[in-house]
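By way of example, we now present a protein record of this kind:
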Amino acid sequence: MSKFIEIAKSYSKAGFSVIPINQDKNPAIRSWQEFQNRPMTEQECEEHFKKCHGFALLGGTQKNITFLDFDLKYSLTSDFFDRYKALIPNELLSKMYVQKTRNNGFHFAFMCDKIENNQKLASRYTIPFEKHETYLEAFNNPKTRDKALRIASLDSVKVLIETRGNGGYCLMSPTKGYEHVYGKIQSISVEEYDLLLDTARSLSEVIEIKRDIKVDKYKEW
């Protein structure tokens, strides 16, 4: 019996929505979206988690789960994560479920009455060396060779911090490559939620330019 069956049952019994994951980090079942509205039954856990590579916890759902994903492989400095944590009160950090990812990044997980869709919070501009690497990878693939230059030109930013909320999911420990560091999934206030996300945005190096939309004042509505 897969060890993930009992893990899935435990999460589902507590009201969390989980799904099985394949080795490519994708859902191992087709109709997983229905579990955004309800947890699996014990029978469904036994059926869906019989053969899987790991499991993921769904964002949003009845528990209002949000994940903060720190993709540190794209950071050009070794202290990026520490700089973020230094801006967050220890009391709030202690409310986070924290796990390490297989790419040496980190995930925060928490519950909050405020829930949103997936968002990119902090990014940096791609450096020339990375664009060159992107070009070589695309050129060496026969399926993308003709588009290699365009693919490289579109590689303009690297996302450092993003969220997974409504419609998203996050692979969880003990899925291979993921390690629980500390904490459990707890509820935080809306003010604490905004602080976590606004602090992440403050570390972004990419400036988004908002264009004003001009409306013809004579147009009838």
In short: The helical segments are 3-13, 42-48, 80-86, 90-93, 128-139, 148-154, 190-202. The mean pLDDT is 92. Residues 29 and 35 are 11 Å apart (CA to CA). The beta strands are 18-21, 54-58, 65-70, 97-100, 106-111, 120-125, 157-164, 169-171, 179-182.
